Automatic annotation (TrEMBL):
PROSITE patterns linked to this entry: PH_DOMAIN, SH3, ZF_BTK
PH domain residues: 7-116
Annotated protein name in UniProt: Tyrosine protein kinase
Chain ranges of the SH3 domain: 180-234
The keyword Nucleus is annotated on this UniProt entry: no
GO process annotations (BP): intracellular signal transduction
Keyword Kinase: yes
GO molecular function, one term: zinc ion binding
Coiled-coil ranges (or none): none
Annotated Gene3D superfamilies: Pleckstrin-homology domain (PH domain)/Phosphotyrosine-binding domain (PTB), SH3 Domains
Keywords: Kinase, Metal-binding, SH3 domain, Transferase, Zinc, Zinc-finger
Organism: Amphioctopus fangsiao
Length: 234
């Protein structure tokens, strides 16, 4: 993993499959630098030692799917993640080949996290397999329509993916009146987040909720003044 500046949340050198936006484009794989910040997932050409020219960027608020691809489903490759996004009214799928399963998990978690903060509209289902041109169908469900709805619940619907967060819930502190504009909560359980960027909760500590407009992620401030997000469950 490459070092990155304060604006970049994650930066890695991985493989990208061509998206065939143009009919003359051959399907192939190219090494790219992938960078995510709070607004875009961008990719650059270059070498493992040096980043080159930007080749493309995807707006996080336009992303609809961030999921794993079944191992060996895409050209017999493993550790592949897929990103379905919208661009100029058309939907495209970006396939990224990570070096390890851990790297794939990190990228999926980070992209989802940032997309949720941008209120991205995630699909409720996705295809864990790929649509193959030779078979003219999806490997995961035999759907012959390339634009057919997904056959598996996406992470936004899979409640089993956030078991720790479901039990680590802040509750409204009794010292705060209902008429107060402040939203102060106290943690009733300790909680260590999966992502170090998220808020760690400590039993008995108070947290001021600064933004609860997103049902999946709230922005809170600790007594020490640190601001971070966490997954609420009421």
């Amino acid at each position: 993993m490459s070092q990155h500046n304060n604006c970049e949340l994650l930066c890695d050198f991985m493989k990208k499959r061509s998206q065939n936006k143009k009919t003359i484009t051959r399907q192939c794989y190219k090494n790219r630098w992938f960078v995510i910040d709070s607004n875009f997932l961008s990719y650059y050409d270059g070498t493992p030692m040096k980043r080159g020219t930007k080749k493309g960027a995807i707006s996080l608020e336009k992303i609809h799917v961030v999921e794993e691809v079944e191992n060996l489903s895409l050209d017999q490759l493993i550790n592949v993640l897929q990103i379905v996004y919208e661009e100029y009214g058309e939907c495209y799928t970006l396939y990224i080949v990570a070096d390890t399963s851990k790297q794939r998990e990190t990228w999926i978690s980070t992209i989802r996290h940032e997309c949720l903060k941008k209120n991205a509209s995630f699909y409720l289902k996705y295809h864990p397999g790929v649509w193959t041109k030779s078979l003219k169908k999806y490997k995961c469900c035999d759907q012959i329509d390339r634009n057919a709805p997904g056959c598996k619940l996406s992470f936004i619907e899979r409640h089993d993916e956030v078991p720790a967060r479901l039990n680590k819930v802040p509750t409204r502190h009794p010292d705060v009146s209902e008429s107060s504009n402040e939203k102060i909560y106290v943690a009733i359980y300790d909680y260590s987040p999966y992502d170090k960027q998220d808020l760690q909760l400590t039993t008995g500590e108070r947290y001021e909720i600064l933004n609860d407009s997103n049902e999946h992620w709230w922005l809170a401030r600790t007594n020490e003044g640190r601001k971070a997000t966490f997954h609420p469950t009421m």
